[in-house]
């Protein structure tokens, strides 16, 4: 069975004055052991909220998240702690997510201590090993986060996430705050660690070009909903949803001949407010193919081809 199953997951925020922000509004997808699932969408589409709700930094408003078949949101106390040992998060901002008053060694060791994994000399060795695993070295253990570059800080964040040997890591835009020159290095580090540690990733990003390069399968989000899920190859070769088609059309192709053939699909208008989403299909205010039916009813998220899901009345 999949390592993670997300079933009709919802996270709504009550803003007062009868306003409800439906940041995540009914997600369905699963992630197989050892794979990288990319969750992609424009800023504000709810992808970070989805990540945080899956790992239970937020309590879900509705739906279920099964991890190895167990309902995460029903877990309490010890079980919950055991779960958090198996799931870790790497955050977008390596500047904000590391405590500036703690040495790097302490930051990495914290989870090891809380979970009572190693102590004394073994703990120190474990920290040194983690530093080497992420391309740093043991001399870095005594230094503070501000002494490091953005890319190095993200390596520290990754070492911290790995410290307690999780099976599953949610990486929320882990490279978007970094210089372009170091982004590829950090992506390669994620790949290397996946092989070495048998990790499963939920990789959240706004940049489809990057996600398609690193993911086995991809989910495309729009206004709190998944509009398409497929393998990276299928999504790339035959995107079914008009929103995915527009995202892909913006990515330059390496082959100049193919690029000449490519029609860029420019979307009109802004993303509507998730507090006040359109009726029917959430994408209809920007969709080049919108029909009257699209305003009336919400298209079902259906399996159009084996393993290829999309929500559009055209399908
Ligand atoms: Fe466009 Fe209608 Fe399909 Fe929505 S359901 S993506 S508006 S064609
Ligand atoms: Mg975000």
TrEMBL record:
Domain of life of the native organism: Bacteria
GO biological process: peptide transport; transmembrane transport
Entry-linked Pfam families: ABC_tran (PF00005), oligo_HPY (PF08352)
SUPFAM superfamilies xrefs: P-loop containing nucleoside triphosphate hydrolases (SSF52540)
Keywords: ATP-binding, Nucleotide-binding, Transport
GO function term, MF aspect, one: ATP hydrolysis activity
Keyword Coiled coil appears in the UniProt entry: no
Gene3D superfamilies: P-loop containing nucleotide triphosphate hydrolases (3.40.50.300)
ABC transporter domain ranges (all copies): 4-248
Family: Belongs to the ABC transporter superfamily.
Protein name: ATP-binding cassette domain-containing protein
């Amino acid at each position: 069975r999949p390592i993670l199953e997300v079933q009709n997951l919802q996270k709504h925020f009550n803003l007062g004055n009868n306003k409800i922000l439906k940041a995540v509004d009914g997600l369905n997808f699963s992630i197989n052991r050892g794979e990288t699932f990319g969750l992609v969408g424009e800023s504000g589409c709810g992808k970070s909220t989805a990540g945080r709700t899956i790992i239970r930094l937020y309590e879900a408003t509705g739906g279920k998240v099964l991890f190895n078949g167990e309902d995460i949101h029903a877990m309490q106390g010890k079980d919950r702690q055991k779960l958090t040992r198996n799931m870790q998060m790497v955050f977008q901002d390596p500047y904000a997510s590391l405590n500036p008053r703690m040495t790097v060694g302490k930051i990495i060791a914290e989870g090891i201590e809380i979970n009572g994994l190693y102590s004394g000399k073994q703990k120190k060795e474990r920290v040194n090993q983690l530093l080497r695993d992420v391309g740093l070295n043991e001399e870095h253990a005594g230094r503070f986060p501000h002494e490091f570059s953005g890319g190095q800080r993200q390596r520290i964040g990754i070492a911290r996430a790995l410290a307690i040997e999780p099976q599953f890591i949610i990486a929320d835009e882990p490279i978007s705050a970094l210089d372009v020159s170091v982004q590829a290095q950090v992506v390669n580090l994620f790949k290397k660690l996946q092989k070495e540690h048998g990790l499963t990733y939920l990789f959240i990003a706004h940049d489809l070009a990057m996600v398609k390069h690193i993911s086995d399968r991809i989910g495309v989000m729009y206004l709190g909903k998944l509009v398409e899920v497929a393998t990276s190859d299928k999504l790339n070769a035959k995107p079914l949803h008009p929103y995915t088609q527009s995202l892909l059309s913006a990515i330059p192709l390496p082959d100049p001949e193919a690029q000449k053939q490519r029609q860029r699909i420019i979307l009109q208008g802004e993303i509507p407010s998730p507090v006040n989403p359109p009726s029917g299909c959430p994408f209809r205010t920007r969709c080049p193919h919108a029909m009257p039916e699209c305003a009336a009813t919400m298209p079902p998220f259906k399996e159009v081809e084996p393993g290829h899901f999309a929500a559009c009345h055209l399908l």
